[in-house]
């Protein structure tokens, strides 16, 4: 492919060269799917990314040519090109980029033929619809609708489309009327290339708060293990010495070994025991 790309016509050759320059000039190069994003929303996304990343809309074939010419690990990115791909170049790390892209997404109504990104649920409860043909439409779509006090009410919460299923025209119409917007529309990350590693979305979608808690728990457990095993480190040495001192002092007191660090505790202990014996003997 590399030999063929050298004979690309003018603007295509320039586009491939530009992609290659950006790929070498930024820490992260990522593929995103822009299919179905309205032009106005895409302009807003460009504005939000300004100063943080470069969004490049181009043809999939030119992306393939650029990756092929870059060679090496870049060539592995080619298999993630699908749909209407675009490129994002940034110096942010992939996790930060993923969070940024997730924030570009907005909820929109489903269109016939689209695939449900997750289970679509119609919750039970009242609606704003008055009695009429809408009741039949809901029931035909498998939604348990009844009339109460002249208004349409959803009797039970129900999953109407399971994750991965195709949304029919009838269901899309009903969901639109119920103002249920199940589709996340925005830049969908396909893959990110950073420090010779390809990151998929599922690798970057982490719960930061849960991750932080896990780190704190792991640090606490490691600290306790080091102290209990008397394995000294820069962080645990003070606690280990403190524990050893306390245990040595307690041993000295229990064994009635008189020395500067234990004599007061031994006398105090003897005093307590004497008072206890006096109480048992009835103060005699």
Q: In the CATH hierarchy, what is the superfamily of the largest domain? A: Ribosomal protein L10, N-terminal RNA-binding domain
Please bin the fraction of helical residues.
40-55%
Q: Give the biggest sheet.
A: 5 strands, antiparallel
Rg from Cα: 34 Å
Overall pLDDT metric: 86
Write structural notes for this entry.
By secondary structure, the chain is of the alpha+beta class. It has 3 domains: 2-105 and 186-205, Ribosomal protein L10, N-terminal RNA-binding domain (Alpha-Beta Plaits), CATH 3.30.70.1730; 120-183, Ribosomal protein L10, N-terminal fragment, domain II (Molybdopterin biosynthesis moea protein, domain 2); 210-280, no CATH class. The chain is 45% helix and 19% strand. It has 11 helices and 12 strands. The chain has helices at 2-5, 10-25, 39-49, 60-70, 94-102, 133-140, 169-177, 201-204, 208-228, 237-254, 263-280, and strands at residues 28-33, 53-57, 85-90, 106-108, 120-122, 125-130, 145-148, 151-154, 158-161, 183-185, 188-194, 197-199. It has a 5-stranded antiparallel sheet. A 3-stranded antiparallel sheet has the order 6-8-7, covered by helices on one side. Strands 4-10 form a two-stranded antiparallel ribbon. Strand 7 (145-148) and strand 8 form a beta hairpin. It starts with a helix and ends with a helix.
């Amino acid at each position: 492919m590399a030999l063929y790309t050298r004979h690309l016509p003018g603007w295509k050759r320039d586009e491939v060269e530009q992609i290659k320059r950006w790929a070498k000039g930024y820490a992260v190069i990522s593929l995103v799917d822009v299919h179905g994003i309205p032009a106005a929303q895409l302009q807003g996304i460009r504005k939000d990314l300004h100063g943080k990343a470069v969004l490049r809309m181009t043809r999939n074939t030119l992306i393939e040519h650029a990756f092929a010419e870059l060679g090496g690990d870049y060539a592995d990115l080619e298999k993630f090109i699908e749909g209407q791909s675009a490129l994002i170049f940034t110096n942010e790390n992939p996790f930060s980029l993923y969070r940024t892209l997730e924030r570009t997404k907005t909820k929109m109504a489903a269109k016939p033929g689209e695939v449900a990104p997750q289970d679509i649920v119609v919750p039970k409860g009242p609606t704003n619809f008055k009695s009429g043909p809408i009741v039949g439409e809901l029931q035909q779509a498998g939604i348990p609708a009844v009339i109460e006090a002249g208004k349409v009410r959803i009797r039970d919460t129900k999953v109407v489309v399971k994750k991965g299923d195709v949304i029919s025209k009838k269901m899309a119409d009903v969901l639109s009327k119920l103002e249920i917007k199940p589709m996340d529309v925005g830049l969908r990350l396909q893959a990110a290339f950073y420090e010779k590693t390809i990151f998929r979305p599922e690798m970057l979608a982490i719960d930061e708060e849960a991750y932080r808690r896990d780190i704190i728990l792991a640090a606490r457990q490691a600290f306790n293990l080091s102290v209990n095993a008397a394995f000294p480190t820069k962080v645990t040495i003070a606690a280990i010495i403190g524990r050893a001192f306390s245990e040595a002092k307690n041993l000295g007191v229990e064994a009635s070994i008189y020395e500067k660090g234990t004599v007061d505790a031994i006398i105090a202990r003897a005093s307590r025991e004497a008072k206890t014996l006096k109480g048992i003997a009835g103060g005699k």
